[in-house]
Give the backbone structure.
Amino acid sequence: MSQAAEPAIAVDQLVKVYKTTRAVDGISFALEPGSITGLLGGNGAGKTTTIAMIMGLVTPTAGTVKVLGAEMPRLRYHVLHKMNFESPYVDMPHRLTVRQNLKVFGRLYAVEDLDGRIAALAREFDLSEFLDRPTGKLSAGQKTRVALAKALINSPRVLLLDEPTASLDPDTADWVRAHLERFRKERGATVLLASHNMAEVERLCERVIIMKRGRIEDDDTPRRLLIRYGRETLEEVFLDVARGRGEAREAAQ
Amino acid sequence: MSAFSTGAVTLAPHRVAAMVLRYLYLLRSSWTRLLELIYWPAVQLLVWGFLQFYIAQNSGFFARASGVFIAAVLMWDVLFRGQLGFSISFLEEMWSRNLTNLMISPLRPIEFVCALMIMSLIRLAIGMVPVTFLAIAFFGFNVYGLGLALAAFFVNLILTSWAVGIVVSGVLLRNGMGAESLAWTLMFVLMPLACVYYPVSVLPDWLQVVAWALPPTYVFEGMRALIMEHVVRVDLMVEAFVLNALYFSAGVVAFLQLLKSARRVGSLLQTGE
């Protein structure tokens, strides 16, 4: 395989067993550089564990994960500076101001011209008004914008997002999606997005991986999934998969 | 940005500095946190100091041993607050649910530990330096008068406090907030065994063996020898240092193993919840 064609993320026969629970059960996929992929699945489908293994936070029981060619978690320090992550379930220190938090993370990622980068992110994410306010005193929407600014502070080549618009009002959620779309186009970053929001996945993703009970149930473009399941929306496809109607249809065919 | 590398271990000063900056921002943001650093050591000093005053008036032995309790209080606080300063900085990450952000950043465990050690020193300095001046003002006891021996006492006590702090942090990573109480209580197990306020000879024979396995015991014995007999026990300090090197290395290995185990069982995903 040539250097240019190497997947940004390569997951091969990945398994994670917690005591007696198989959270991830032999999944494989490869994400092309610059692609944006949705990871769909109900609660307990294995999405978060999969993302955690890609980030090197969790050691696989079997199989391999490679990010930008580096095996995770063994070689994680070769690539962590080129990756980042955002999730509403992970906070930043509440007592620190937005600027202080961005400074700390910028230094951890060795961002050059950090003040300039923070100023650019403040403009892009409309943070200027509360840059010197404690992060804990912001609204949910403002916190999400700060978390995204943190996730983009190192201009990552691989961006992992875990339900980035959860608990946001429709207007803010739409604003976040537009920014993610723009970031991916401008920077050519590879984005893997775990979400419960089907409209979000339909709008942003060119590929959808649907997980159920730790396994990949389907993996295709949103358009081809809609055709295959004979549905109008991804939400209907998701429900078919979640309730086993997809398997029943395949068996009938 | 530069990084020091010795094969398996890479240390980037800019990442250590970033973490120290993060904790300094936090300290600066809260005057109650700053006050808390001084409050307990000051209360402890005053209680024990006045007690020593009272006993000294009624006992020739304690009159001769002037300052021994106060020195013991100050030394104990170096040990206890050193570990607490290390562990609280670590706990701040768990309380604020920020640990995942750090674990997916390029920050390496050894850099994190270095930042926590630096913060332990800074917090100790903020808390203890004013209290040492309080000891001079109230009881006429100048701990700096112990000279070079004080440096040996300090180095040995702070190394023990870091060794304990590192292990506690590893247990917190592996077991989550359920193990938080360890950070506040573990050091008190050492208190009776390390013979902070009395000589090792008062312990039963079998317990003396345990006491001599602990580096702080050597420091407190050395401190009493210096204050009461005016003898500098270099041998005790060297033995304490050897034990500390052993325990500190074991603490780092335990931390790395607990971190590895945390990655295996997935507890890095649940911390703070």
